[in-house]
Amino acid sequence: MPTLAPYSNASSDVFPGGQLELIVQFDSWKNSGQGTGASDVMIEIAASGAADSGAGTPVAQTSAGIEQLGEGLFKYLWNVPAGQATGTYIVTWTGVRASDGATVTYTQAATVAPDPEAVPLPGLYASVAQYRAWSGDSYTPAQRIQVVLQRATEDMDLALVAAVYRTDADGMPLDPQLASVLVRATSAQVQYLLAANDDSGIKREYSSTSVAGVSAARAQSQQGGALPRLAPRALSILRVAGVLPSAPLVNW
Predict the structure, then answer these.
(1) Which residues pair with 94 in a beta bridge?
(2) Can you tell me the distance from the alpha carbon of 120 to that of 124, in angstroms, rounded to the nearest whole number?
(3) 124-159, pLDDT tens digit by residue?
(4) Model-level pTM?
């Protein structure tokens, strides 16, 4: 079974709800790199057997939607459903080669990757979608939320110094209940930081400022402060769950 020529898109990623362009060139002979005419071209997209978790065959063998770009060069646009299961899919092209009348098959891999807004990025305790679900905030742009999620996660890390719980190789909690606690606490911290609109943490150190007069009055509550402020709701979530290192019961 020939694989795709090097200049074809042999492996591609796409998110659920996105569109993936798949291209194949039929060679005059195996791996020649020289295109030849082809007829009866078909395509099929099926979940990889080893990673198939019920994803099935999203595109049964068909010729519909295949566009010929040149001699032996064909394109298919896969409109991935929004609910498509993530994982690796095998794209199988078949056709009759004009040079010798042989039926040939080409395969390539296509990966449906998790939606970056639905799944926390590496090192973060919550995703954009989880924050939106907790807060009901549907207006703040996702890019802005991702930035603040990083800061909120760092605040959680500082608050959890000396806390005891099991983690994986990336430092993420292994206990599902604890993971849920951190999703809620991090979301509360994100909401707090977005409302404060003070990414650098400098505004809260002053009770008043004057741009033209270059005058500022430092807030007494912030003088000598060493730690960033946690949102009251985030702190409450962590305390009730017994996650903080000072909690009387640490059972994670």
Answers:
(1) 42, 105
(2) 6
(3) 999 999 999 999 999 999 889 999 999 999 999 998
(4) 0.55
Q: What distance in Å separates the CA atoms of residue 173 and residue 159, rounded to the nearest whole number?
A: 15
Instruction: DSSP for 172-195, please give it.
Output: -B-SHHHHHHHHHHHHHHHHHHHH
Concatenate the DSSP letters of all residues of 63-107 into one string: -TT-EEEETTEEEEEEE--TTPPPEEEEEEEEEEETTT--EEEEE
- The CATH number of the structural domain formed by 11-112 is 2.60.40
Backbone phi, then psi, for 11, in 5-degree steps? Answer: -150, 130
pLDDT at 200 over 60: yes
Beta bridge pairs of residue 193: none
Q: Longest Cα pair distance anywhere in the chain, in angstroms?
A: 86
Residue labelled with tokens 């898109």: 9
CA distance 148 to 194: 7
Extents of the domains making up the chain: 11-112, 128-241
Q: Which residues pair with 103 in a beta bridge?
A: 96
Fill in the DSSP letter of residue 128.
Answer: H
> Would you say 38 and 95 are in contact if contact means Cβ atoms under 8 Å apart?
yes
The span from the CA of 243 to the CA of 252, in Å, is 8
Helix (H, G, I), strand (E, B) or coil at 59: strand
Q: How far apart are CA 32 and CA 104, in angstroms?
A: 14
